[in-house]
Amino acid sequence: MSFINRSKFRVALAVFSLIGFIFIVTGCTGFTRKPESRSTNSPLSVVLAEMVGTVTPTAINMSTSSPVPTQIFTIPPLISPTPNTRPKPFYWRDWPISPDLSPNAQEILLKAIKNPALDLHTFSKVGDCQMTPVTFLGGFAKGEYAIPPGLEPAVSWFSASMTSQSVTAANGLGISSVLDPIFGLAAGNTQCQANETPLDCELRTRRPAVVLIAMGTNWKPNGEVSFEKYLRQVVDRILATGALPILATKADDVEGDWKLDLAIAQVAYDYDLPLVNVWRSAQSLPNHGLEAPLDEYLTGDGWMAANYAWLNTLEKVRQELAK
Length: 323
Fold this sequence. Notes:
Blueprint (H helix, E strand, L loop, with lengths): L2 H28 L12 H10 L50 H11 L5 E9 L10 H5 L9 H12 L34 H9 L1 E7 L9 H18 L2 E5 L10 H13 L3 E2 L1 H4 L18 H22 L2
Parallel strand pairs: 1-2, 2-3, 3-4
């Protein structure tokens, strides 16, 4: 082979080697296995989402065959200036029996103090027979129940509301009933106007600064979705007046799988409102404070456990209103 041919051969060999190297490099990056996609419901994804407040970001393209963009995604901060430390609705069983008032609830009450349209000594009740004065709080104002030490100021402050009837708390009422005018004037509530819902009637005539909501025992099968929808409407209407809604779980599970308590907790969480955990207040009682065999209504001890939880919460409200 001549010198020129040998030189050409060496050049061709070098070029061929270079092309092979490039093919190997680009081939490895081109066929790199993609990261496994994880369901947003997988344990790891859920934990990461809760830590950083978002879902897991997409993978960065590490290919060397093209320039890496300056910014693929923005990593959210691991620590927020105001971290949300509230327990999630799924864990409503662990929520306290008597809640502390969040900054949001305190702000609502502060505005209520400055609102001449509201009566700071008045609360309204939204519920069924379990929210009537015969069983709910009325005994404290009438001297029939022993008042726990330190809670006397709450009884004095709200005594008139404890013994009064609410249009929105009566036997057989459901969450949609208080939004239906047929349960107002047409039902014999003469203080209500024609075509006025019981809720609007109650808010107009009593001008409460606080509204206590305990609904769900009168449940209809498969009604948890509509229950939450109507509960949100009730909360929205109350907030529109400037009053503070306070929600509560229920001790029974007539619907199965605790769907309504979870719905109530979700609404309380979304609106950042106080929730009295009546369910938890009754857990240490025989049969969890429920009358056997139906396990639907509270026993006498169950009533009192719920009353103490509500009264303790009202004292926290009173302290804010009395500032």
